[in-house]
Write a structure and sequence with these properties.
single chain, 4-stranded antiparallel β-sheet, Immunoglobulin-like
Length: about 150
């Protein structure tokens, strides 16, 4: 009887370790924004996970919105995040004459089974990087440098 109880407890513990919750990962995203001169904005996206994770990232949003202009470089691609390593999958720079807005949305998706498929893989997490750019801004705030972290299925 004791042996059966120990076996049952071991099987239950193994099932818990193999469950999706046990394999969940934490993914973090942040951006650096630098002003080169008064109007050239340079953005770098960083992603990091607490375990190795194969993903597909997609950059959306409106980009930089100024007086009658819109600039964006929507990118996407497969990427491997290595445990604890900050990776830089995307960057973008453009001129924006204030006032204006910054509007980027970063989607982190499951790695696609077929990289040539037109179907977007399931979304794991979405990160928003949005702010108003006031008239006369001389230095970009560190708003986007704060890590946004979300737990996703591994």
């Amino acid at each position: 009887m004791i042996v059966r109880s120990l076996i049952a407890a071991a099987l239950f513990a193994g099932a818990l370790l193999a469950s999706p919750a046990a394999q969940a990962a934490q993914v973090c995203a942040w951006m650096t924004e630098k002003l080169d001169g008064e109007e050239m904005h340079d953005f770098q996206l960083y992603l990091q996970a607490d375990q190795e994770l194969e993903i597909y990232y997609k950059i959306g949003g409106e980009g930089l919105i100024g007086d009658g202009s819109r600039m964006h470089s929507p990118g996407s691609g497969t990427f491997v995040l290595h445990k604890g390593v900050a990776e830089k999958p995307w960057g973008f720079g453009a001129t924006l004459s204030p006032p204006g807005q910054v509007d980027f949305v970063v989607g982190v998706h499951k790695k696609p089974v077929d990289i040539f498929s037109e179907t977007l893989p399931p979304l794991l997490a979405s990160f928003d990087f949005k702010r108003k750019v006031p008239e006369g801004e001389k230095k970009a705030p560190a708003t986007f440098a704060t890590k946004q972290c979300k737990t996703v299925a591994g």
